[in-house]
Amino acid sequence: MKHLIAPSVLSADFANLQRDIEMVNSSEADWFHVDVMDGVFVPNISFGFPVMEAIKKYAAKPLDVHLMIVNPDHYIERFAAAGASVITVHYEACTHLHRTVQAIHAAGCKAGVAINPHTPVALLKDILVDLDLVLVMSVNPGFGGQKFIPNTLNKLRELKAMSSAINPDLLIEVDGGVGIQNLADLIQAGAEVFVAGNAIFGAPSPSVMISELKQLDAQLKS
Ligand code: DX5
Ligand code: ZN
């Protein structure tokens, strides 16, 4: 089974973005997690296309784009053109989710759906077969550095059971308050992609922290 580490660029130093991207390039991390916030779906604004294009210019690993925006359908082709490998939209922001997922695939990207802490996993049952990834939010989206919500572990276990039955290739991603202290529990609950912002960029040495996250990962796998 694959276990991936995805540092969240939201916690990088935007005045030294090239430096931080190159640190991730030369680290053991697998993906770049790119958080796009519109100030409507979530109470914060992060960045849009110019910054995403700047990230792409230096990033040597796939861009995992997490859209915390309303009307994501309007922008899917542009995010694909800007270099996204994975595009994840929020369940709560999509009225015609099946159509949105098809549009992501048509744009040549892997399709993900994110669910907020209050959204039941069971609501994904009829879309699961069409997805490459489900992102379980373990904090309320909008900000880095928040505290992990423990009920996420139950949601991950439920999603893992559902995906084993319906779509065994599905990747399960967890985002928010993830770090060395809860990684083992999250792996055991079924998560496979780990987004970490503050835990990595707030560490004395981000690349050492990435390595520790990967090593813990490897120990548990064996
Ligand atoms: C929150 C974002 C996260 C955030 C995670 O809305 O989706 O990706 O950057 O940051 P940490 O790991 O600091 O909780
Ligand atoms: Zn995110």
Describe the structure.
The protein is an alpha/beta fold and 222 residues long. It has a single domain (4-221), classed as Aldolase class I (TIM Barrel), CATH 3.20.20. Helices cover 35% and strands 19% of the residues. It is built from eight helices and eight strands. The protein has helices spanning 17-25, 49-58, 76-81, 97-106, 152-166, 183-189, 198-201, 206-221; strands spanning 4-7, 32-37, 63-68, 84-90, 110-115, 133-137, 171-175, 193-196. The chain has an eight-stranded parallel beta sheet. α6 links the parallel β7 and β8 (193-196). α5 runs parallel beside α6. It is globular and about 45 Å long. The model has no long low-confidence stretch (mean pLDDT 96). It comes from Pedobacter ginsengisoli. The active site is at residues 35, 175. GO terms for molecular function: D-ribulose-phosphate 3-epimerase activity; metal ion binding. InterPro entries: Aldolase_TIM, Ribul_P_3_epim, Ribul_P_3_epim-like, RibuloseP-bd_barrel. Its cofactor is Fe(2+); Co(2+); Mn(2+); Zn(2+).
SSE arrangement:
Layout: E1 4-7, H1 17-25, E2 32-37, H2 49-58, E3 63-68, H3 76-81, E4 84-90, H4 97-106, E5 110-115, E6 133-137, H5 152-166, E7 171-175, H6 183-189, E8 193-196, H7 198-201, H8 206-221
Parallel strand pairs: 1-8, 2-3, 3-4, 4-5, 5-6, 6-7, 7-8
D-xylitol-5-phosphate is lined by residues 8, 10-11, 33, 35, 66, 139, 141-146, 175-178, 195-199.
Task: List its salient traits.
222 residues, 8 helices, alpha/beta, eight-stranded parallel β-sheet, binds zinc ion, binds D-xylitol-5-phosphate, single chain, TIM Barrel, 8 strands
